[in-house]
């Protein structure tokens, strides 16, 4: 991936992230990819996922969201 694309990227954290700074950031607007980095190390390494793979990950995470008192280990549904 061209580093010039990442230099111009606009990074964001999830709206679910707390104020502790222990989270990851994603960049929008990179065609075909979703770059991910550690929010504490903005100049550090970036992992770029194919957009389809990232979408599948997010959908799976939403589908497996913890439910209070729900089945599974620690409230997380098992498949």
Q: How would you characterize the overall build of this protein?
A:
By secondary structure, this protein is an alpha+beta fold. It has one domain. It is 23% helix and 24% strand. The chain is built from two helices and four strands; from the N terminus they run H-E-E-E-E-H. It has helices spanning 3-7, 51-63, and strands spanning 10-13, 24-28, 33-38, 47-50. It has a four-stranded antiparallel β-sheet. Strand 2 and strand 3 (33-38) form a beta hairpin. 3% of the residues are buried. The model has no long low-confidence stretch (mean pLDDT 79).
Oligomer: single chain
Instruction: Give the neighbour order of strands across the main sheet.
Output: 1-2-3-4
Whole-number radius of gyration?
15 Å
Helical proportion, percent range: 10-25%
Q: How many angstroms does the end-to-end distance come to?
A: 34 Å
Order of helices and strands: HEEEEH
Q: Tell me about the biggest sheet?
A: 4 strands, antiparallel
Averaged pLDDT: 79
Number of E-state strands: 4
Topology diagram in text:
Layout: H1 3-7, E1 10-13, E2 24-28, E3 33-38, E4 47-50, H2 51-63
Antiparallel strand pairs: 1-2, 2-3, 3-4
Short description:
This protein has 79 residues and is of the alpha+beta class. The chain has helices spanning 3-7, 51-63; strands at residues 10-13, 24-28, 33-38, 47-50.
